């Protein structure tokens, strides 16, 4: 069995190593606890206790221990431990790599100054992104989808109007709360009708048939505040919102705050960090992109992202379409970029009111046939597209993943990814058991403010305490699969680090959210957007990439919500280094020895809510 559980659990705090005489028997430890209550007992360097699997006791006392160790560290090793300061108030919503004035200074122009340029804004000095003074822990799922705290996001006054586009309506409910339109929430609006309309246009009876028709994942570009995505999620589709960086009223920040999947990304000059043939549907409602700019390169990028037989849905008011179809033949038609979509072998399925739907061809030969051969097919593809320049050629036609979405089957999928079904199911078994253990590790953290008597069972954490999860080194997406199977109400951003085996196509083909990312660079999201960060083997991987663990830990602090958790699984060496770093960031941290004879350790941390 690959279960990593064990009967003995050792909790190690502080810089000092465990001392042998402290391996007291269980009875005396519990007797002491009972005697002294949760107040003192600071003389222990470590506690070793036999506990039942999945049960952790006495966490509150350990918390105090951690604080004491930390204070002691500060007074003793003044040189090694310098408390990192908070950044200025102007950086409360800071996203590195998107500094427009610095990009302009560096010579980027023609819109490229709004693109992601990590090389320009290299961080000189480390500081912790501060939490707004009026920040409040978000409501639990699903209430948090419909109502958020206004102090948690950056909005300008005029964005509180409820007059935006259908997907962009929001209103100030009370002084400090914002409510969103949603079907079963407070306010009814047209998003359900809209989703039905799209289903009908592609020949389905209703939007509940999307999944059967092969539509599993959707890239929602310029998603408003995620309302359409929320509808799709309720139909068991994965809809990821993607929008450009915005300094206020960010669609991505608000969508994530609601507990819906979102990522910063833009059609400017680079490919999105997804492999070709990634999505079953790309959707844009008034997303502000001039699709036929740059000789249609944005449409070619959409073609790259779409699976064969996938759909491109555009909704925008007539006036805008005419304006943006100047590039096509004058007066020919009111259909936007009609000529170009023909070159792309897209088939216009329908137009209704302001909505147009095209279907990408299932026939890879279509591109090379003489009639269409105006856009060449790309040569020498390797599938790794990490912010590469946009191209003028068609991708993916020679891939063995060229399978029409209408023909997908799970058996097919493992085969085309060259993965042995046995390895895959063994991996899932591993994650099932790992998840049970993680969940039991989080329980005492969640309930640490409610002291319980020794021997009491730890209650399970409520299923809806965590919502936005990031697996920083997702491999096959096994943690995501295990979470779904255990019916936790979470979604997972599965990150495949650049340089690791590229399993992102497999992750996306399972209908999960995923992205390629180089962890030597900042992640394209706003501060305080994830509840849990999980990283197995990432520290070791990064050591081989030779980038800074300090940068990584600061980045994790930035994107983690206050009172959010970090679970790092790695070898003892990197874990020890990480532990000493995170305590300097004021995180609570404990190292857990798996005690299965390996030098693997878990580091479980929680970021405190500090608003001063
Ligand atoms: C953006 O860049 C400018 C110019 O380099 C710099 O003065 C400013 O502090 C930067 N802003 C942030 C938030 O880092
Ligand atoms: C998809 O399925 C249809 C109908 O079953 C079949 O005719 C077609 O050949 C399949 N296409 C591919 C690429 O497998
Ligand atoms: C111990 O557990 C870790 C983490 O689950 C696992 O990677 C490792 O292979 C295990 N080692 C042994 C010797 O079983």
UniProtKB/TrEMBL annotation:
The keyword Glycoprotein applies. Its main location: membrane. It is a single-pass membrane protein; Single-pass type II membrane protein. GO terms for biological process: methylation. GO terms for cellular component: cytoplasm; endomembrane system; membrane. InterPro entries: Put_SAM_MeTrfase, SAM-dependent_MTases_sf. GO terms for molecular function: methyltransferase activity. Keywords: Glycoprotein, Membrane, Methyltransferase, Signal-anchor, Transferase, Transmembrane, Transmembrane helix. Its EC number is 2.1.1.-. It is found in: Endomembrane system; Membrane. It is an enzyme of class 2 (transferase). PANTHER family: METHYLTRANSFERASE PMT4-RELATED, SAM-DEPENDENT METHYLTRANSFERASE. Belongs to the methyltransferase superfamily. This is Methyltransferase. It comes from Buddleja alternifolia. The lineage of its organism: Eukaryota, Viridiplantae, Streptophyta, Embryophyta, Tracheophyta.
């Amino acid at each position: 069995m690959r279960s990593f559980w064990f009967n003995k659990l050792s909790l190690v705090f502080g810089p000092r190593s465990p001392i042998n005489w402290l391996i007291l028997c269980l009875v005396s430890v519990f007797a002491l606890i009972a005697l002294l209550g949760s107040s003192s007992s600071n003389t222990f360097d470590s506690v070793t206790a036999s506990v039942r699997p999945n049960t952790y006791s006495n966490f509150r006392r350990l918390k105090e221990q951690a604080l004491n160790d930390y204070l002691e560290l500060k007074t003793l090793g003044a040189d090694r431990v310098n408390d990192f300061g908070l950044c200025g108030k102007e950086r409360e919503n800071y996203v590195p790599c998107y500094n427009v004035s610095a990009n302009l200074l560096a010579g980027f122009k023609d819109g490229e100054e709004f693109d992601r340029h990590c090389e320009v804004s290299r961080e000189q000095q480390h500081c912790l992104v501060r939490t707004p003074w009026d920040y409040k822990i978000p409501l639990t799922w699903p209430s948090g989808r419909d109502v958020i705290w206004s102090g948690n996001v950056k909005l300008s006054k005029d964005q509180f109007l409820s007059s935006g586009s259908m997907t962009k309506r929001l209103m100030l409910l009370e002084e400090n709360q914002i409510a969103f339109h949603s079907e079963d929430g407070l306010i009814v609006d047209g998003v359900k009708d809209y989703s039905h309309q799209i289903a009908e246009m592609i020949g389905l009876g209703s939007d509940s048939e999307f999944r059967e028709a092969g539509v599993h994942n959707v890239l929602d570009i310029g998603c408003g505040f995620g309302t359409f995505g929320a509808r799709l999620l309720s139909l068991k589709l994965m809809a990821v919102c993607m929008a450009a960086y915005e300094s206020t009223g960010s669609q991505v920040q608000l969508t994530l705050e609601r507990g819906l999947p979102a990522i910063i990304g833009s059609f400017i000059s680079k490919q999105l960090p997804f492999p070709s043939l990634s999505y079953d549907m790309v959707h844009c409602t008034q997303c502000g992109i001039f699709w036929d700019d740059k000789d249609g390169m944005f449409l070619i990028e959409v073609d790259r992202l779409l699976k064969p037989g996938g759909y491109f849905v555009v909704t925008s008011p007539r006036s805008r379409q005419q304006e943006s179809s100047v590039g096509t033949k004058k007066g020919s038609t009111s259909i936007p970029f009609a000529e170009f979509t023909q070159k792309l072998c897209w088939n216009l399925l329908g137009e209704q009111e302001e909505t147009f739907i095209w279907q990408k061809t299932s026939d890879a030969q279509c591109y090379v046939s003489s009639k269409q051969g105006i856009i060449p097919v790309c040569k020498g593809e390797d599938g790794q597209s990490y912010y590469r320049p946009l191209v003028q050629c068609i991708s993916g036609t020679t891939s063995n993943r060229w399978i029409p979405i209408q023909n997908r089957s799970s058996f097919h999928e493992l085969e085309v990814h060259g993965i042995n079904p046995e390895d895959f199911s063994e991996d899932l078994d591993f994650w099932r058991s790992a998840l049970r253990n993680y969940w039991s590790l989080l329980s005492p953290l969640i309930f640490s403010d409610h002291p319980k008597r020794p021997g009491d069972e730890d209650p399970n954490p409520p299923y809806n305490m965590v919502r936005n999860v990031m697996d920083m080194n997702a491999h096959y997406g096994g943690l995501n699969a295990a979470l779904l199977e255990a019916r936790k109400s979470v979604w997972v951003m599965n990150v495949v680090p650049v340089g690791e085996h590229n399993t992102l196509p497999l992750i996306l083909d399972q209908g999960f959210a995923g992205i390629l990312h180089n962890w030597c660079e900042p992640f394209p999201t706003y501060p305080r957007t994830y509840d849990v960060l999980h990283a197995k083997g990432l520290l070791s991987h990064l050591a081989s990439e030779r980038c800074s663990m300090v940068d990584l830990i600061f980045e994790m602090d930035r994107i983690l919500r206050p009172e959010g958790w970090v679970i790092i699984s790695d070898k003892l060496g990197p874990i020890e280094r990480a532990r000493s770093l995170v305590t300097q960031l004021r995180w609570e941290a404990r190292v857990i020895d798996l005690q299965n004879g390996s030098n693997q350790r878990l580091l479980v941390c929680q970021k405190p809510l500090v608003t001063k």
